[in-house]
Automatic annotation (TrEMBL):
GO terms for molecular function: kinase activity. It comes from the Bacteria. Gene3D superfamilies: 3.40.1190.20. Belongs to the carbohydrate kinase PfkB family. This is 2-dehydro-3-deoxygluconokinase. Pfam families: PfkB (PF00294). The keyword Transferase applies. The lineage of its organism: Bacteria, Pseudomonadati, Verrucomicrobiota, Verrucomicrobiia, Verrucomicrobiales. Transmembrane segments: none annotated. Keywords: Kinase, Transferase.
């Protein structure tokens, strides 16, 4: 199967146990995993059986070794991860939301190795050898001016080599601070508009498109998708996650895929999720599912159904990575969502 490369930051994720607030977390009770959008997409893809590599820069210490070992244990290729003497492993702290209380993320990632490492430090020829798809998210250009430059360089380099690019917009208002003269939103818009010129498949929620591209959210999704793909000629598809819900615990999750060549918006069935174990990484699971299905040569309707089912199942798994198999996702697509015990 074709090789996929993802590039971005991986962090240590420290989550309070269950639904505890930060103030309630006791030493010894914190749940430690590794997470980061592009790493999570690579992990999902590898878990589904795809040939997926993750590229980043990490400090040369034992915790970063553990992080790489975690990725490898899932089958992610890690041989192009740079080990540096400058920069740190980022951390993010998480308390899950429950009922009417939303979740909260606190980042502690300033000065991460990948934020500081310049494009010239990576061997892009080796990284892109045999690669058919490159994946990046809007988080990478948000973390530092340098990372924004590396992200732009990487997508340009991918395009030059005939590699298709998926970009998951992932707007994070708490990031995008590296140009103090601009608001987070203006900085994101300016940066992402440059990046999207080199992107083949747009992925995001409607709120990402409003915040980062200034699209008019009042229109229906078909109109929004047409607007986005018309603005960036390289885009062949635009995929959207859709959520609405009455609380942090009850969400309707769905997806839609617009194909520019046919001007058709394909929509997936909506899943009603009534007990969210962990919603972080559901968007990454959706993107990985989308790309995995594209790699299989599936139709747009099958592709969006697979991506949406993958994103749905990710809500049932603690941590950002989606440990759902292809068979489990396909079973859900076929209506087996009853949560029965397999025995
Ligand atoms: O928010 C970020 O920067 C992350 O990459 C953390 C999570 O892994 C990501 O939000 C999930 O999409």
């Amino acid at each position: 199967m074709s090789r996929v490369v993802t590039f971005g930051e991986i962090m240590m994720r420290l989550a309070t146990p269950g639904f505890a607030r930060f103030q309630q977390a006791m030493p010894g009770s914190v749940n430690v995993t590794f997470a980061g959008a592009e790493a999570s997409i690579a992990a999902s893809l590898a878990y589904l059986g795809a040939d997926a590599a993750f590229v980043t820069a990490l400090p040369d210490h034992a915790i970063a070794d553990a992080c790489i070992a975690d990725l490898r244990s899932i089958g992610v290729e890690t041989k192009h991860i740079l080990r540096t003497t400058e920069g740190r492993l980022g951390i993010y702290f998480l308390e899950h939301g429950a009922n009417q209380r939303g979740g909260n993320v606190i980042y502690d990632r300033e000065g991460a190795a990948v934020a500081l490492t310049p494009a010239a430090a990576y061997d892009w020829t080796a990284i892109f050898t045999g690669c058919e798809w490159f994946v990046i998210s809007g988080i990478t250009p948000a973390i530092s001016r340098n990372a924004a430059e590396v992200a732009l360089f990487a997508v340009q380099e991918a395009e030059r080599r005939g590699i298709k690019v998926v970009c998951d917009m992932n707007y994070r208002t708490k990031l995008w601070r590296w140009e103090p003269s601009l608001s987070a939103r203006d900085l994101a818009t300016r940066t992402m508009k440059d990046l999207l010129r080199h992107v083949t498949v747009f992925v995001g929620g409607i709120s990402d498109a409003i915040a980062m591209l200034g699209v008019d959210g009042a229109g229906d999704l078909h109109t929004v998708a047409k607007q986005i793909t018309a603005q960036f000629p390289n885009l062949t598809h635009a995929a959207f996650t859709q959520r609405d819900g009455s609380s942090a615990a009850v969400q309707n999750f769905s997806g839609a895929l617009y194909e520019k060549a046919t001007d058709v918006l394909h929509t997936a069935p909506t899943f009603s999720i009534t007990q969210i174990i962990d919603r972080l990484g559901a968007g990454d699971a959706f993107t990985a599912g989308l790309l995995f299905s594209i790699l299989q040569g599936s139709s747009p309707a099958e592709t969006i159904a697979f991506a949406t089912a993958a994103g749905c199942l990710a809500h049932s798994i603690e941590g950002d990575f989606n440990y759902s198999t292809r068979a489990e996702i396909e079973a859900l697509m076929q209506g087996d969502g009853g949560g029965r015990v397999s025995r």
